[in-house]
Design a protein that fits this description.
Layout (H helix, E strand, L loop, with lengths): L3 H33 L2 E9 L4 E8 L5 E8 L2 E3 L4 E6 L16 E5 L11 H7 L8 E7 L6 E8 L2 E8 L9
Keywords: Membrane, Transmembrane, Transmembrane helix
Length: about 170
């Protein structure tokens, strides 16, 4: 049998092992999230006769993405000026005719999270359903020619930044 002091020493040691294990887990999850960079652009459309840009966005990660800020040519825009496009259909978000499609919604950039990309089977299952979005994008209007877009977002509670040069896309879509 162990004495009371030995039992207390083992409990104290066990607590430190648990704390160290938790710290290692937090560091591992942070490094995993940082290595992913899950937000990608899958298309860019400029609307003729205006300085409006539509960028299709895809979450290649495992958790939701929350857009927080968007800058055009280095100037940060209020969330109300950047629209998040949410598609419940197979209509490409970076395509044309978005306004006429009843299965596409335009909301404030920070109104919804971008869910992870659906599998082909999930897309077929949910197309036309207003419960599960299939595609996402953002629409940005500017008085000046849009040359560069910077998107700040949170993934797994960590902040990330993605910068794309419009005339170098897809090469700038790292």
């Amino acid at each position: 049998m162990q004495s009371g002091e030995e039992v207390r020493a083992l409990r104290k040691k066990g607590k430190w092992i648990a704390i160290a294990g938790l710290a290692v887990l937090v560091v591992f999850l942070s490094l995993f999230a940082a290595a992913q960079r899950p937000l990608k652009a899958d298309g860019i459309t400029t609307i003729a006769e205006s300085e409006t840009l539509i960028i299709g966005l895809v979450n290649h990660g495992f958790w939701d993405i929350k857009l927080t800020d968007v800058a055009v040519n280095g100037k940060w825009r209020p969330a109300q000026e950047v629209q998040l496009i949410v598609s419940y259909t197979l209509h490409l978000v970076a395509g044309s005719g978005l306004e006429e499609d009843p299965n596409i919604k335009f909301v404030a950039m920070d109104a919804m999270k971008i869910h992870p990309k659906l599998s082909t089977e999930e897309v077929q299952k949910y197309k036309g359903s207003t419960d599960t979005p299939i595609g996402y994008g953002i629409r940005i209007s500017s008085e000046d020619k849009i040359e560069q877009i910077t998107i700040r977002y949170n993934y797994m509670g960590l902040p990330f930044t993605k910068t794309m040069t419009v005339d170098q896309w897809p090469a700038s879509n790292f």
